[in-house]
């Protein structure tokens, strides 16, 4: 539980670090994932015997998870620059709802009444948050597109979770995340090169931010969350991650002086309520 609390605080810094960086979203995401993988390389070497368990369907699932994670980062990093931190982080956290829908169609898991209610509540909150961009156009550069990208990021995050769900029951953490991070970095590299963004021409401040993204949200955030799943019930992990939008919004207020509008706050509360209902119903 202590590790999970640290992980939630760590992932809450992600949007703030993205906003502080002046680099394009593609290189930012690429270096975050690449540096996270490099930090895990010594552990991957010690666990090299476990890589042999990634065969056939498990290897394919890990590859698909890496592609989905790359799409998630590409969409969400761009979202943070277009809408408010509160809206972007809250909307991207709706991924449990998309996981529930995907599990029903792909894994034949039953959608309970409580799950459906939770999903509908989360979607209603998302629609309410999108109204802020229409009624208060000065709150962010392009809030409607930013909110849409955040929701797309949530869909891809849901695909990432679904692709890796069964693999983690048979394969150790480090080999699995190593394969996922390498594939993800490859996808983000192709995305960056396709856009023509530079990979290396950045000042020391940007490299410090890239490293901060890798150490904080990458190593102490998502990697620790994956570790915690072996020791804490998945329902507890899902509900705990609802704390990320709250932490990010508070940090945005303190670091960026970004005050969310009342509609964003109200919509965010509805979204978080929907995620909580979905997680409880699935538990």
Brief sketch in words of this structure:
With 283 residues, the chain is mainly α.
Give an account of the 3D structure.
The chain has one domain (2-282). Helix content is 77%, strand content 0%. By secondary structure, the chain is mostly helical. It has 13 helices and no strands. It comes from Halosegnis marinus. Residues 2-130, 146-279 form the EamA domain. The chain crosses the membrane at residues 30-47, 59-77, 83-107, 114-131, 143-162, 174-195, 207-229, 236-256, 262-279. Keywords: Membrane, Transmembrane, Transmembrane helix.
Descriptive tags:
283 residues, mainly alpha, 77% helix, globular
Tally of structural domains: 1
Radius of gyration: 18 Å
Major beta sheet summary: none
- Ranges where pLDDT stays below 50 over 5 or more residues in a row are none
Proportion of helical residues: over 70%
Strand content: under 5%
Query: What is the strand tally?
Result: 0
Which class do the helix and strand fractions yield?
Answer: mainly alpha
Estimate the global geometry from the Cα principal axes.
globular
Distance between the termini: 18 Å
Instruction: Please provide the ordered H/E string of secondary-structure elements.
Output: HHHHHHHHHHHHH
Number of helices: 13
Mean pLDDT rating: 86
Domain EamA: 2-130, 146-279
Transmembrane segments: 30-47, 59-77, 83-107, 114-131, 143-162, 174-195, 207-229, 236-256, 262-279
InterPro entries: EamA_dom, EmrE-like
Pfam families: EamA (PF00892)
């Amino acid at each position: 539980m202590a590790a999970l609390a640290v992980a939630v605080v760590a992932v809450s810094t992600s949007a703030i670090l993205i906003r502080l960086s002046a680099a394009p979203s593609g290189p930012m995401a690429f270096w975050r994932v690449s540096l996270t993988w490099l930090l895990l390389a010594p552990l991957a070497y010690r666990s090299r015997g476990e890589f042999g368990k990634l065969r056939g369907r498990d290897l394919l699932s890990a590859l698909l998870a890496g592609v989905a994670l790359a799409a998630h980062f590409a969409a969400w990093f761009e979202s943070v620059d277009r809408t408010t931190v509160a809206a972007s982080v809250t909307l991207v956290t709706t991924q449990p709802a998309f996981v529930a829908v995907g599990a029903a169609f792909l894994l034949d898991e039953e959608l309970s009444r409580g799950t459906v209610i939770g999903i509908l509540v989360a979607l209603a909150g998302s629609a309410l948050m999108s109204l802020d961009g229409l009624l208060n156009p000065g709150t962010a550069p392009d809030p409607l597109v930013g909110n849409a990208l955040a929701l797309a990021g949530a869909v891809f995050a849901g695909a990432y979770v679904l692709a890796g769900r069964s693999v983690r029951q048979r394969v150790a953490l480090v080999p699995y995340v190593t394969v996922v991070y390498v594939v993800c970095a490859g996808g983000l590299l192709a995305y960056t090169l396709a856009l023509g963004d530079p990979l290396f021409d950045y000042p020391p401040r940007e490299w410090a931010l890239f490293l901060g993204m890798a150490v904080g949200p990458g190593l102490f955030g998502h990697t620790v969350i994956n570790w915690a799943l072996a020791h804490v019930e998945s329902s507890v992990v899902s509900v705990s991650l609802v704390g990320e939008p709250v932490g990010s919004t508070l940090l945005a207020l303190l670091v960026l002086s970004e005050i969310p509008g009342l509609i964003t706050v109200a919509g965010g509360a509805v979204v978080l309520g929907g995620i909580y209902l979905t997680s409880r119903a699935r538990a």
